[in-house]
């Protein structure tokens, strides 16, 4: 790969294809960043989104300059049960497991409560969110870099496509963030999408190739159906003049509520007669 540039119809087509592909592959990154940023205080959310996407772009460009090393990671490091595992495979497997863990944990928190605290009960910090974003940025960047290197020989073209695609994502991220967090059903759909992406990463790590169309087409269909549902609810609200929340996710279950529930459960002893009994 080199920085030379010779314009040709093939180069322009390759650039446009790579540009669109970078945006499509970056959507899951934007969704993940948006969901993580939503756990921070309002004044830090925009900063986390912008910094997360900037780090993703820097990571991807940095990996492009060591593309030969990235490609060398496809060589097997060891074998297990007759199956070879390379550095790339291990990164994809670990990244996929981490993505599934984070998405499932977020779903659990939204359904059972947990709010802006992690599983250990501590408030989520800005640094912790950025660290998680950076980890997934690296995982998402590996396949993107390998794909880009296989499509275009010119490093300059790839860098320009990456920078422009991240410019588009940076501009649209705040709208995606607002939309996802405004509609709980869309947020749950996005989390399910991240679980599927995690599964495909793990499968890819085990050399099980899943056609991306089998993942993205059903997700696109689900998004269209949800958009129609949102449109329908909006029309119904305008007709009735009232606002109806389609889904009410659980709020954090506090210790005080836990104590009240325990007290209520223990206040009725075994001597209490059954309901409806005549004394």
Sequence stretches where pLDDT stays below 50 over 5 or more residues = 274-279
Kindly report the oligomeric state of this protein. single chain
**Whole-Å distance between the termini?**
90 Å
Shape: globular
Binned, the helix content reads over 70%
Strand content: under 5%
Nearest-integer average pLDDT: 78
Return the structural class: mainly alpha
Estimate nothing, just give the exact number of structural domains.
1
Number of strands: 2
Largest beta-sheet characterization: 2 strands, antiparallel
**SS summary, helix count:** 9
- Work out the radius of gyration: 24 Å
Main location: membrane
Family: Belongs to the TerC family.
Region (Disordered): 238-279
Protein name: Membrane protein TerC, possibly involved in tellurium resistance
């Amino acid at each position: 790969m080199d920085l030379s540039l010779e314009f040709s119809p093939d180069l322009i087509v390759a650039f446009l294809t790579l540009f669109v592909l970078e945006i499509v592959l970056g959507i899951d990154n934007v969704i993940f960043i948006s969901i993580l940023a939503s756990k921070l205080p309002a004044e830090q959310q925009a900063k986390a989104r912008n910094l997360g996407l900037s780090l993703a772009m820097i990571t991807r460009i940095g990996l492009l300059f060591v593309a030969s090393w990235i490609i060398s990671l496809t060589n097997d490091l060891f074998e297990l049960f007759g199956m070879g595992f390379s550095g790339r495979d291990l990164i994809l497997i670990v990244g996929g497991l981490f993505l599934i863990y984070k998405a499932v944990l977020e779903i659990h928190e939204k359904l059972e409560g947990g709010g802006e605290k992690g599983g250990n009960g501590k408030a989520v910090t800005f640094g912790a969110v950025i660290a998680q974003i950076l980890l997934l940025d690296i995982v998402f960047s590996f396949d993107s870099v390998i794909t880009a290197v296989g499509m275009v020989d010119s490093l300059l073209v790839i860098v320009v496509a990456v920078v422009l695609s991240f410019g588009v994502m940076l501009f649209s991220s705040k709208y995606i963030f607002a939309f996802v967090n405004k509609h709980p059903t869309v947020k749950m759909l996005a989390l399910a999408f991240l679980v599927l992406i995690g599964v495909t990463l793990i499968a890819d790590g085990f050399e099980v190739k899943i056609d991306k169309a089998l993942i993205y087409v059903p997700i696109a269909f689900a998004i269209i159906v949800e958009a129609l549902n949102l449109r329908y609810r909006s029309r119904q609200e305008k007709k009735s003049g009232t606002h109806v929340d389609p889904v009410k996710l659980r709020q954090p279950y506090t210790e005080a509520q836990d104590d009240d529930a325990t007290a209520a459960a223990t206040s009725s002893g075994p001597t209490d007669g059954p309901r409806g009994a005549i004394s």
